[in-house]
Amino acid sequence: MFLNRLIKTNPQLLKTAFEFHRSGIINPDTYVLDLDSILENAKALIETANDNSISLYMMTKQIGRNPKVAKAISKVGINKAVVVDPWEAITLAKEGIKIGNVGHLVQIPSNMLEEIIRFSPEVITVFSLDKAREISNISKRMGITSKLMLRVIGPDDMIYNGQVGGFREENIIKSIKEIQKLPNVEIEGITAFPCLLFNYETGKVEKTENAITLQRTIEKIRKELQLQINQINMPSVTCIETIPLLKKLGATHGEPGHALTGTTPLHGYTEQKEKIAMAYVSEISHLYEDKAYVYGGGFYNRSHLKGAVVGNTYDNLINNFLLAEDNCSESIDYYGTLELGKNRVKVGDTAIYCFRTQIFVTRSKVAVVEGISRGRPKLLGIYDSLGRKIN
C-alpha cells in the first residue's frame, strides 16, 4: 500500500532512510521526514485551495508537532496551524507559528486558557456554554475579544470514541443566543468532525452525516438569527483531491495534515498529486522461530501497515518484502513482528516501513532531512515525538 507508493514515487527517500540508518546517523524507531517533498505538497495544496477559495490550517500532530517543518510550511504559505491540544499550541507558538484553530479536538483546560489566548488564536473551538463563559471572563479581564467556533453534533452523526463533545444540533440556536449575551467573545464559525471520510469499499472520500448536520445548522443559523458565519470548517482528509468537494459543501476552511506527507487513505490506494514524504526506520532485533522482530515504539494501531522491506544492502532491501503482523492493542509495542516466510534476514538488518501514523502519540524520534530530491540529503535535526530538538 503506502510502501509500494513510496518505492514508486519517492525512492530517494527510501534510499536516504536506508543509508542514514546503515551509517549510524539515525537509530531504529525513527521517522524520516522529506522536507523538500513536504513543501512541494504544501505548495500544491495552496494552489488548489486558492483556486477553490478555501483557507488552510496546517495540522502537525501527525509529524510530531515538528517546529522545523511547521516553520518551513509557514514560509511557503500555510501560515497558521490547527492544534490538536493546548500543549501543541504552546510548542508551535513558542517557535513563532501562528495559531489558527485551537480547542477542536481537545478543549483548553481552565488554568491554561489565559496562556493560550495570549497567543492570539484566530478561533477557539468550544463544546459548551461553560467553556464559552470561561473564555469570555478571561478575555474581558485581558481587554480583548476572542472569536469562537462552535462544534455541532447531530442525532445521527458519528463520533470517535474518546472525542465526544459539542453542541447538540437541536439546542444550537438557544446556545448561540446565550453566547451572544457574553462580553468579549464573538461567534466566528461552526464546525463538525469528521466531515469527510475515506470509504474503503468505494475507494473514494465521501461526506459524512456530520457534514450534512453542519450544512443544516448553518442554514438554520442564517435563517433564524441572521448571523454572519465567517468560518465553516470541515476537517478530515483535506487534500488536493478533496478541496473541490469542500467548496461544493460550502466550507471556507480545511486542515491538511496527512496530505502534507502524502499519507491520507487516498494516497495508499490511488495515485494522488501529493508525494509520500515520510518513512519509518527500524532494525531487526532478533529472530524467533519463523518470525523477525524489529525495534518498536512508533507503531500506530490504525496505521493499516502491511509490511516492511528489509536488508543490509540497498539492492537486497528493495527486493526483500516481509509481511507484518498487527500488534495487539493491549500490549506495548516494544517490537514489531514480521513474517519470515522464505525471506532471509539477519540481526542488525535495516527495516523500512511506510504507513499512516500519528507521531505525537509514539515514542519515536523524528529526523528532518532536506536535499533528498536534489540527491544531497542533509540532516537538519533530530526531534522527539512532541517537537523538542534532541540534536
UniProtKB/TrEMBL annotation:
It holds the Pfam family YhfX-like_C. Residues 34-265 form the Alanine racemase N-terminal domain. Residues 280-379 form the YhfX-like C-terminal domain. This is YhfX family PLP-dependent enzyme. It comes from Tissierella simiarum. The lineage of its organism: Bacteria, Bacillati, Bacillota, Tissierellia, Tissierellales.
